[in-house]
Amino acid sequence: xxxxxxxxxxxxxxxxxxxxxxxxxxxxxxxxxxxxxxxxxxxxxxxxxxxxxxxxxxxxxxxxxxxxxxxxxxxxxxxxxxxxxxxxxxxxxxxxxxxxxxxxxxxxxxxxxxxxxxxxxxxxxxxxxxxxxxxxxxxxxxxxxxxxxxxxxxxxxxxxxxxxxxxxxxxxxxxxxxxxxxxxxxxxxxxxxxxxxxxxxxxxxxxxxxxxxxxxxxxxxxxxxxxxxxxxxxxxxxxxxxxxxxxxxxxxxxxxxxxxxxxxxxxxxxxxxxxxxxxxxxxxxxxxxxxxxxxxxxxxxxxxxxxxxxxxxxxxxxxxxxxxxxxxxxxxxxxxxxxxxxxxxxxxxxxxxxxxxxxxxxxxxxxxxxxxxxxxxxxxxxxxxxxxxxxxxxxxxxxxxxxxxxxxxxxxxxxxxxxxxxxxxxxxxxxxxxxxxxxxxxxxxxxxxxxxxxxxxxxxxxxxxxxxxxxxx
Length: 473
Fold this sequence. Notes:
By secondary structure, the protein is mainly β. Helices cover 8% and strands 55% of the residues. It has helices at 14-17, 143-147, 313-316, 323-335, 434-437, 461-466, and strands spanning 41-54, 57-62, 73-74, 89-92, 97-107, 110-117, 120-140, 155-158, 161-181, 185-206, 210-218, 226-232, 234-241, 244-245, 250-251, 257-270, 280-303, 307-310, 342-350, 354-364, 367-376, 389-397, 401-410, 414-423, 426-430, 440-443, 445-454.
């Protein structure tokens, strides 16, 4: 799972979420923001946000757009093919520990509208999402030896790790309202109640340092000696479920688990009299409080039996057709019984709980400077982990047009430059735009966002003011 997910997707539309016309699209990051949309109705047809980041692999001297026409070669140091000396090479970092974070968010048909109930103003909305998220931190980079075509050390201690992944549908009901209002201030509260329907998930927890032993037995035709690799002192819990039908080699949509979640938010805004857009805002949101119960397979491999995991003919001669087949064969190697590792068909994965703190200040009419801080706070069993982000942005927000630039700091170490533009119903943006158009020495991340919205019964400030009652004689 880890090595197949190095170039993944990610949900990260912070700069656009500060736009007061973002409407229902901003509900996943702040359940109070849809309340500030001046338009009574807001409809999102579809939006998709794509990001990838890792520090295990990179492509040398290339941009993301350049990948469409560039032929990528895999590094082979013994043949002189490396990312340090050639362009368009898929090469690998040699650091001892690596990490990745995978997040995607596709918002399907969604809408919100403003409604007065007993003189109280509410914003009500409904959204649909397809989310994918996974992460691993401080993974022992034992693969660095193979990537550099080096002989594995005779003895190696593979450090403990935790990694998880989930792909799920989400259906949410968003509601926000004002607790009190004066001529210049409002206190807004909001919540999104969500139902999660799981499609695919996996969880791996290696609790002990695994002892690896390598025994070189001779040369191969790949310019690298053949090596028998043995593992012992392992304590690994692994669970998975998937909608991929390995027998028919196709994806079949089924419910693999159910869960619930809730987002909570509160915002204090200052307004100037008769001004629809606020003067300043301070908001705090708690996102993704919840978990999903899944049905799949749970396996435990805990033994001190010496198992051959490298150059094992019982593995190398088999054309694996499914995850289950591999799990059964590994169980037979560990316990001498293909079913001994199986411990049940249920496991739980927590949603990626996080805090989102937001500040926004008008510096001139329609011009705003914004600040966002997202900090993950995993609280449930096997919780998914959102990326930590610090971001500041500057935006211009008008009825049919919006534009902004942003500076982001991911995991408090990686900088991204980006922005967005909103023209009528179309939104385009990126929080890490430079890798798209400019060649990077080591291309290992990027981000792109696209959305299409409608504003039924299109309204604007002039129309709204014309409908206000006139107290005149």
